[in-house]
Amino acid sequence: MLLLNEQTIRGLYKMKECILDVEKAFRYGTEGKTVAPIRMSIPHKKVGAETLYMPSYIEPENFTSVKVVSIFPNNAHVGRKVLQGIILLTDAVNGEHVAIMDASYLTVLRTGASSGVATKHLARKESKVCAVLGCGAQSLGQIQAVMAVRNLEHIILYNRTIEKTDVLKEKLHELYPQWNGIITIQQDANRAVQEADIVICSSKSPTPLFDGNVLKTGTHINGIGSYQPHMQEVDLNTLYKCDKVVVDTMEGCLHEAGDFIVPMKEGKWGTDSIYGEIGDIVCGQKDGRTNQKEITFYKSVGISYLDTMVAQSVYKKALKAGVGEIINI
After folding, report:
1. Strand, coil or helix: 100
2. What is the signed CA dihedral for 272, 278, 280, 282, rounded to 10 degrees?
3. Fewest CB atoms within 10 A around its CB: which of 62, 157, 225, 301?
4. What residues contact 235, with CB distance under 8 A and at least 6 apart?
């Protein structure tokens, strides 16, 4: 069995190839070649945390995996990682457990790549300004993915805790030293959204982050932060203004996405307003953006077969490069 730590994985696997893998995985999903049960969430109410268990299988790649992720927000106060995870990868031909790998970086990368695929198909090609609402653990991957598919000139950072915007700004300067764009910090979410061509929502907010009425014509939104029924990053005005609401999976979003569940329980919005899954667009069964004026919204709560897809890709690259630690169990 191969043991792969985060440092090794970072050296092997980057955002652009992750986007290609994720797009292929969405195609497999639409073609019925994946198995991905709804993830199991175990809450730890004493500390306001949770652990997620996510099994999946991709038939064309002949691999299955289980990812376990713990999300402990209070860790940020004591210098520990908020998001920690591992993936167990299994050869689906012979049942051999072939690798255990750190999943923290891969989770951020594949979640970002999901939004990257959506941005590729739904955002205007000339989009230049991106507003990031929520500068926590997932935000960096979201920005990296958008940067991989669009030529941004201005990134606007908003977070209710201002210190996080400073940290993210510094990380972006380190990551893109040759980039000629500008990064600004905005303390008003509505003003950030007003300026944006692309809006990233990557918070765990229980209430909407901005008023949908301020959205510009032609804006694209990636919503990835609210992954539980009580969380809600976008308001009803946003849903009403969107010409296309696209999801990673219908099953997952209708089970977990508070952005939809809250207004549905109030009888103010229905599933007939969902345009389709991103895989439908990737496979050409439905159109992506069709004009410059459309406002589009991609909602993702995560789907476990993306983890299997990226894990098997990393494993193959590690074997080829001869890296990682071989362990006997």
Report:
1. strand
2. 160
3. 62
4. 208, 210, 211, 212
Is there a contact between 135 and 167 (Cβ–Cβ < 8 Å)?
Answer: yes
Instruction: Quote the pTM value.
Output: 0.94
Over residues 90-149, the pLDDT tens digits come to: 999 999 999 999 998 999 999 999 999 999 999 999 999 999 999 988 999 999 999 999
* DSSP E strand stretches across the chain: 2-4, 34-35, 40-44, 49-58, 63-71, 83-91, 97-102, 129-133, 154-158, 182-185, 198-201, 220-223, 244-247, 276-277, 296-299, 325-326
Report d(CA 51, CA 253) in Å as an integer.
Answer: 19
* β pairing state of 2-4 and 97-102: parallel
Separation of alpha carbons 26 and 6, rounded Å:
25
Please indicate whether residue 37 or residue 279 has the higher confidence score (pLDDT). 279
pLDDT tens readout for residues 161-196: 899 999 999 999 999 999 999 999 999 999 999 999
Amino acid at 128: K
Interatomic CA distance for residues 157 and 192, integer angstroms: 8
131 backbone dihedrals φ, ψ, rounded to 5°: -100, 130
**For residue 2, what are the contacts with CB-CB under 8 A and spacing of at least 6?**
98, 99, 100, 101, 315, 318, 319, 324, 325, 326, 327
pLDDT digits (tens, 9 = 90+) for 273-300: 999 999 999 999 999 999 999 999 999 9
| Helix/strand/coil for 148 | helix
Give the DSSP letter string of 225-252.
S--STT--SS-HHHHHH-SEEEES-HHH
What's the rounded Cα separation, in Å, for the pair 18 and 27? Answer: 14
Is the CB of residue 122 less than 8 Å from the CB of residue 256? Answer: no
Spatial CB neighbours of 92, under 8 Å, sequence gap ≥ 6? 57, 59, 62, 63, 64
